[in-house]
Amino acid sequence: MRDVRSESSQYAVVIGGTGMLRPAVHALLKRRLKVVVVARRPHRAAPTGDHHDQFLPVVSDWSDPETLVEDVLAATGQHLAKYLIIWAHSPHREALMHELERVVAQDALVLPVWGSAGRDPREALTEQADSFAGHRVRHVILGYLSGVNGSRWLTHTEISTGVLNAMESTREIHVVGRLDPWDRHP
Ligand SMILES: NC(=O)c1ccc[n+]([C@@H]2O[C@H](COP(=O)([O-])OP(=O)(O)OC[C@H]3O[C@@H](n4cnc5c(N)ncnc54)[C@H](OP(=O)(O)O)[C@@H]3O)[C@@H](O)[C@H]2O)c1
To answer: What's the structural domain count of the chain?
Structure first.
């Protein structure tokens, strides 16, 4: 039987942490968490100052979820994660979400991030298969912002701040920016 340690740890796993979630990765490092960043080029999220020893880059691709999960567990020394943030695109997302159940501790907080550039993200959310049953899940839906000069998509900082705020929230669905009226998006 595999030696997977089930106790809650101080590991956070961020899938797709080198783009819009990069500020969130750096905030988690400042919170003294050990942060596993999974991407094809994870070093792009490496901290520039302190916290190098907590930064655990994993080179892996969404298209092979089983290997990706094994790579994550190898990086944590088989410790399960306390936080899991997931940003991945179709068609890999669903299989990846299912496989990633193996990396989280029982008391983990799981934050799937849903983008809105293509279509109303609420549709994708209602179509998703049930993953992470029995875990605390906070779905983070990325909306848009509007002002006097029209509407715009969220910046990386706004997206990352939204994810960090969702970590503190008790609501299962956390919208960053606005979704309505949907036809006014940029
Ligand atoms: N509502 C909104 O405001 C909204 C919603 C969605 C997106 N956006 C914007 O749109 C921009 C583009 O989105 P994006 O999806 O390119 O996000 P991104 O977060 O900028 O980059 C995608 C992330 O996924 C990783 N990745 C991509 N393909 C992968 C693969 N096959 N296997 C493993 N990891 C992979 C990338 O790293 P590697 O390339 O190293 O693998 C990177 O970490 C974002 O910068 C964001 O600002 C805005």
So the answer is: 1
Question: How confident is the model over 52-82, as pLDDT tens digits?
Answer: 999 999 999 999 999 999 999 999 999 999 9
Q: Which of 14, 15, 18 to mutate to test the pocket of ligand 1 (most atoms within 8 A of CB)?
A: 18
Residue nearest to atom 37 of ligand 1 (CA): 39
| Pairwise pLDDT comparison (95 vs 149), residue with the higher score | 95
Number of alpha carbons in the 13 Å side-chain half-sphere of residue 171: 10
Residue nearest to atom 23 of ligand 1 (CA): 16
Distance CA 128, CA 67 (A): 22
Range of the domain at 93: 11-184
Question: Which CATH number fits the domain that encloses residue 85?
Answer: 3.40.50.720
Q: Is the CB of 117 under 6 A from ligand 1?
A: yes
